[in-house]
Automatic annotation (TrEMBL):
Pfam family, one: PHTB1_N
Ranges of residues in domain PTHB1 N-terminal: 1-211
GO cellular component: BBSome; membrane
Coiled coil: none
Protein's UniProt name: PTHB1 N-terminal domain-containing protein
Organism from which the protein derives: Frieseomelitta varia
InterPro entries linked: PHTB1_N_dom, PTHB1
Gene Ontology BP term (one): cilium assembly
Length: 217
């Protein structure tokens, strides 16, 4: 006996012969809660796509309306492999952070409502404008975003490199680099805002907690 019943609600294929991993998919309310979650997909081939699923369940046919061409809000290709995707608070609105093999790129995201010559809606389109970017000196493995140090109203960024080194950015400004011990490879790392802690596993099978401390001069 199953406790859950599932139904396929929406489906699409992202390109052809592209590769993805667990960091390639992100769901976030980029345009406010009233717009529901937007699906952001980044591939190792550098393609960045955003979807706003509009599928609805039809009781008469016992099936969903499924994918529509207007569900795809944007498809663009970056110059490099997309490693990770995150959202974070900028000065005002939510921004999209894209970690590639050579850069950390942060975009402002704008929503454009399109209609035809008769005023009928054609769906929403997304526009990306780069807010700032940082070139990376090491090959990245993952990206973590949060109000490090208890900062209010904005989020900072932490890039974990393949050798376990952590690069911290206070938005447009590079803050510092932190070398970690007992790391043979990059491990999953999670930021816990309530306690302002970074939780990560070491290569010696230990769970470590680290706190981000803002230095004052």
């Amino acid at each position: 006996m199953s406790l859950f019943k599932t139904k396929e609600w929406w489906r699409t294929r992202c390109g052809a012969n592209e590769t993805f991993d667990r960091h390639s998919l992100l769901a976030a309310p980029l345009f406010g809660k009233e717009r529901h979650d937007i699906l952001v997909v980044g591939s190792h081939d550098g393609y960045l796509r955003m979807y706003k699923p509009s599928s609805q369940w039809v009781d008469e046919t016992k099936s969903p309306t499924n994918y529509k061409s207007t569900d795809l809000m944007i498809e663009t290709r970056l110059d490099d492999c997309i490693v990770d995707l995150k959202t974070g608070r900028g000065s005002q609105d939510l921004r999209l952070a894209v970690l590639t093999a050579s850069k950390l790129m942060v975009f402002d995201v704008a929503l454009v409502e399109e209609s035809n010559e008769y005023g009928l809606p054609l769906g929403d389109r997304c526009e990306l404008k780069i807010a700032y970017e940082h070139r990376l000196s090491r090959f990245p493995a993952s990206l973590t975003v949060g109000p490090f140090g208890g900062v209010r109203g904005r989020d900072f960024l932490c890039v974990q490199c393949l050798d376990g080194t952590l690069l911290f950015y206070e938005q447009e400004v590079f803050a510092f680099v932190q070398a970690t011990r007992n790391r043979l490879l990059a491990e999953p790392i999670v930021y816990v805002p309530r306690y302002d802690l970074f939780v990560a596993a070491s290569s010696s099978w230990c769970l470590e907690c680290h706190r981000h401390v803002l230095a004052t001069v």
